[in-house]
């Protein structure tokens, strides 16, 4: 199959296959870049045109080693490329372009799971002060609810008026269809109830339980980009770097564990995780934490 035309046709077919599988444009571009990187390395190594039928597992292992030792690429970059190559050859095998997947048994680099980033207490206060000072009741409610419950942005956008219940002593937000169609109820603190109540009182459809909770000038807020714009408006005012709503979800998790360090199961329930191991990452020490602990070691 040592024919550039056939190679290009095969790659085009693979890209079409990935699109039909629902892969995003960014993912498809990343996969294509990984394949191009592999092809270029093969050409430099063997001074020959790329032929999928001639690739063996040793080629893939040496390409992996080249990235580690010569290119010094990050483990995450290498793993992403290995996954992409593995999927290309898996597809090529299913299409009878090759007889065996040479990347099928190549191990990824074992990377210590990174602690997700959240805001520290000072930065969170800066953000909340900014939105309370310069924001309207909706923007305050959006950011306070994300930071105070750990909701995913997709869950936030699906809320209707009937999903928020606020009272003098108790309150809750009901997530009717979270990730993996999960249902859960998240309690609302007193301050959060007051914040939401201020927004609900101004809502033009406050007596309609099925009305969308979040409204803007052009109607219902439906897109994640709307929440990103709201959040980054106030991070800029607060002098903080841009961030996504998921940062506030991580922030909530850290804040909760600071006060309830042993309640992993409770945090998992609040975040909508059925497996408590998923939230164990929030207990992982950062490099700074480990450095401080090592300084206390007396040798």
The count of helical stretches stands at 12
- The shape, in one word, is globular
By secondary-structure content and strand pairing, the structural class works out as mainly alpha
CATH superfamily of the largest domain: Intergrase catalytic core
What's the rounded overall pLDDT mean? 91
Please state roughly what percent of the residues sit in beta strands, choosing from under 5%, 5-15%, 15-25%, 25-35%, 35-45% or over 45%: 5-15%
Total number of β-strand segments? 5
CATH architecture identity of the largest domain: Orthogonal Bundle
**Spans of at least 5 consecutive residues with low confidence:** none
Q: What's the helical proportion of residues?
A: 55-70%
Tell me the count of domains. Answer: 2
CATH class of the largest domain: Mainly Alpha
The strand order across the widest sheet is: 1-2-3
Radius of gyration in whole Å, from Cα? 25 Å
Main β-sheet: number of strands, strand sense, barrel status? 3 strands, antiparallel
CATH topology type of the largest domain: hpI Integrase, Chain A
Query: What sequence of helices (H) and strands (E) makes up the elements?
Result: HHHHHHHEEEHEEHHHH
Instruction: Please report the distance between the alpha carbons of the first and last residues.
Output: 63 Å
